[in-house]
Every structure is written in C-alpha cells, then in structure tokens.
Amino acid sequence: MDETRLLTLLERIATALERQAPSPPPAPDLSAADAFVWHADGERLAPIARVNRVEIGLLQGIERQRQILLDNTQRFADGLPANNALLWGARGMGKSSLVKAVHAAVNARRAGSLALVEIHREDIPTLPVLLTQLRASGRRFVLFCDDLSFDQQDASYKSLKAVLEGGVEGRPENVVFYATSNRRHLMPRDMIDNERATAINPGEAIEEKVSLSDRFGLWLGFHHCDQDTFFAMIEGYAAHLGLEVTSEQLHAEAVEWSVTRGGRSGRVAWQFVQDLAGRLGKRLS
Q1: The CATH number fitting domain 35-222, selected from 3.30.565.10, 2.30.30.220, 3.40.50.300, 3.90.226.10
Q2: So what's the pLDDT on residue 178?
Q3: What is the pTM of this model?
C-alpha cells in the first residue's frame, strides 16, 4: 500500500473514532444558582434552587462563632484575604446551619456575590477536578463539606492537605473551604494512637495527622448548651413562627422534650418547636 492510500485510510479510521467518541460535557453554568452540589460520578455541578437553611438570627448560643465566620466570609466575598474554616464540636449545635446561614446573609447584602458548593465526604478524592472547574470562573465560592472525618486506611486526607495549602497550585483565590466535624483533628483518637505506636518516629506520625487541621486558619468550637441557652433557642424559634404559647408552658414542655432526647442542642430545640407547631396547627413558612 502506497503512502497516499495509507494516509487516506488512517484519516477515515480517525474520523470514525471521533464519531463514536462521546462529546465532551458542556461547561457548567456557574451563574445559574447561588448553590450547587458536586456529583463526582459525572463530574458535574447541579444547581440547587432552594437551600435548606434557617435565618442567621435564629442561631442562638453561638454568637461569637457566628460573627467570626460572618466576618471571614464577608471579607472573602469582597475580594479580601480569608481563611479556610473548620467548625468542630458537639452534634446538633448549628455547625452546618451556620455555614448555610452565613452564605445567605452575605448574599443578602449583595445578591449573587457568593456561591455555595457542597461536596460530600466520599467525593474528596475528586476535589482537584472540582477546583479546576471553579478556578476558571470569575465568581467566588464557599466549598462546603459537612461531617468531614477520616478513619483507618483512609489516605484521601493527604490529597485534601495538598489542595488546601500544600500543593503546587494550592487553593484557588476564588475558593474558600469550610468543613464541619465532630472532631477537631478530623481523625479518631485510636487512629492517631495507632500511628504513634507503629511509627519509627511517633512525633512525626502525629504531625502528619494533625497537620490537616492546621490547613484551616479558623477553628470554631461548638459545645453543648446550658438550659438558659436552650430556652433562648426555643423562645427565638417560637417568636419567629408566631406560636401562641406561654413562657411557662414553653419551658416546661421543652425540658420534658430534652430529657426524652437525652440532651440539649440547637437541633433538639428545632425538633421540639416543629412538634409544638404541629400540635398548635401552625404551618412552617
């Protein structure tokens, strides 16, 4: 076969392969919404029309954490330097609710200034792919991972470390990373203790584990609330929803509810108010 016929045949084969190859996915429209969820399987961002959140003023007992995170997020939205934030501590004390409420509060000051992107814990290994898409946008993003933690045999925390601060590219200037966790160091104590016991240099093993948390410039702790704070949460929700009930009845029923749930928290307060609103025939707006 001469050279001309060979080139013609190769061109025909290349054309046939191009027709069979899937077309590249369209570029995401990052102006389509103020909130997105990252789907790692299709490497796509799905817009969210309505975020499940509460008003920032209803979050009681965490005023200091609320102001710090709001200030950090507002600076970021304004194009100023801002830190990654780790919200850690007791369950049900408003960590994830605060992230979503702060996002809404910043956008209320200047519409569309900030987009919230949720990435699930199991999709952390695809974080570099997501950041490539966000980096190309002129918009600013809060990348949010709820209930972030790592267990035995899970090495994906190393890729997260590199993306946050340590990699060649690092975190894009238009992205800040917020995470919530029940653990301050994102790893169970037995995992850290096991590293200490098996390492040649135990100190270096601990540094490897703890250094992930160090990538977060803000550490905001959330702790179990006392009864007065619990009552303030209940009263704030009841007033916001217009529930007609006396303070004495509200407190008595709230105490009984918290005892049956085994503790007091913002989540328990909201669950109680939902039950109370239902019994009073009041719809939640």
Answers
A1: 3.40.50.300
A2: 96
A3: 0.80
